Amino acid sequence: MCGIVGYIGKDEKRNIIIDGLRELEYRGYDSAGMAVMSQDEISYFKAVGKLDNLADKTKDFSSSGLGVAIGHTRWATHGKPTEINAHPHLGEHSFVVHNGIIENYKELKEELEGKGVKFLSQTDTEVIVHLFEENLKHIKDPFKAYEATIARLHGAYATLLITKTAPNKIFFAKVAAPLAIGKNDKNEIYFASSDAPLIGVAKEVSYLDDKAYGVVGIDSIEIYKDGKKITPHFSTLPKDRSYAQKEGYRFFMEKEIYEQNTVVSEAIMGRVKNGKICLENLTDEYLKNIDNIVLCACGTSYHAALTASYLFERLADVRVKVEFASEFRYRKPKLNTNSLFIVISQSGETADTLEALKIAKEAGLKTLAICNVDNSSIVRLADTTLLTRAGIEKGVASTKAFATQIVLLWMLVLQMASAKKSISQSELDTEISALLHIPQILNIDNSLQERIHRLAKHYLHGHGFFFIGRDIFYPLALEGALKLKEISYLHAEGYPAGEMKHGPIALADDRLFTIALMPQTTLYEKTKSNVEELAARDAYILAISPNEFELSDDFIKTSKQEHPMSEFFEMMIILQIFALEISIRLGNNVDMPRNLAKSVTVE
Ligand code: F6R
Q1: Annotated catalytic, 394?
Q2: pTM strictly above 0.70
Q3: Is 278 known to be catalytic?
Q4: Interval between CA 532 and ligand 1 midpoint (Å)
Q5: How high is the mean pLDDT of the chain?
Q6: Residue spans per domain, the chain
């Protein structure tokens, strides 16, 4: 999703903007641009495609001395990814960058065109800069003109504007899209869509609240909300940028797959005490009285929710509904105020999930966020949060965030089950010892990737993939299919194994790849007969199981495990590496797949 950076100070601005945008590349984008103003002169540059293209275009440009700069990576929503549509958008003397959607842009555009304003791009963003300049014609004070501009905008936005009419100032506003301000001892001010670009350059950060807007200058930060000046809260930023490096792996996704053992340990750390699960901010008393749960999320986080729904019902004896946030928000859901509404989000910024959370809160439900990004919009809105502690996830295809979400949800199930006494102490002991064993399961054997690498060459063609499984291995099948399609661009579907005969089996032939999840602990015989039905119709079968399966064309042997979750995590790793290896063989950009964004801040 779009990324924004901004800077006020005396240093060379081109590098600051390019470096900042690099830290936001993981959000996904298809063009980039920057505008730099120094000594009343504004220069701007735009380039389609990767940031290197913008870096190339600006390689002979530099600007030091007091001035301001804004930069942007754009993920196209209104209008194709062209140079004209790339940000910054310009008026006569001002430039704007924006993340989000201006919902009433058509109406504003018509109004402005009626006054003779000429638009260059097809974007919604361009209305901001023209509206500002129109306002400035009769409201002479640039800040008041900016205030009047944002008062007219409907929708979601984080936006920065610079103008020759107010040199060395950046005007900013934020509603339902992330924006943070960083500052340091050199009187420099930075803006960014997340704190990643601020680490190492700013000392302190303030995450702006929704509806905050204002203006910053070299030695002043003025922030307003609802027309009143507010005092921002700044917190200290970490100094270390090394976490963002690939540490010897070829891709962030690969590194993130391999670090799942560590991050899952982190997710568990301090949350198991004296043979009990003790999640911060959640008392047994609180959990005991919950008999109804709604789990709501998008994409991979939705698959984590679906997995957890089996665990909640089975272990905590609680009614569960799982919702796609994008469906939930427009469907007049019938809500029970006694429900606990749990949103799951890696980024904490997904627009649909955030809106669903707002609906649940307004309806008076208790809300809980399972999230990877502290201070994100979702975390700030939910009543309570459990952080997944996966560390920044840079690969667009989510891996370690999924693993930690599942672990957190499982722990929540166990604490609830123990509070409700829906499982015995010995069952709880078995669950906890399985939980503590997961980091070991996530240690990847050296030979596994090599084996999958060799297998992957069989799977580059064909007319599609079916990933099948039962019970919790069904959402895992969905996740395996999603991983593959995201980074290989091959058609893949996840399906409940028992549903194949109700239609999809018609597709079975020797060019249909079936990836069969056949755990020993969960409905093995049932799944086996579903796979046999496919094998009988000549489907090409990759079986993943601890048990040899004579009808499979390819086979990945997993270890014998006693607990379904151990088998789940072992198979999860295999599916992630399977997608990775196919994508590499196809020569795709693993970390930044086409058309995708890391943080989906538009609906
Ligand atoms: C898949 C993926 C997406 C996200 C989805 C929700 O690999 O990354 O499907 O899971 O966009 O994002 P979050 O979890 O940030 O709310």
Answers
A1: no
A2: yes
A3: no
A4: 33
A5: 93
A6: 3-242, 245-441, 444-603
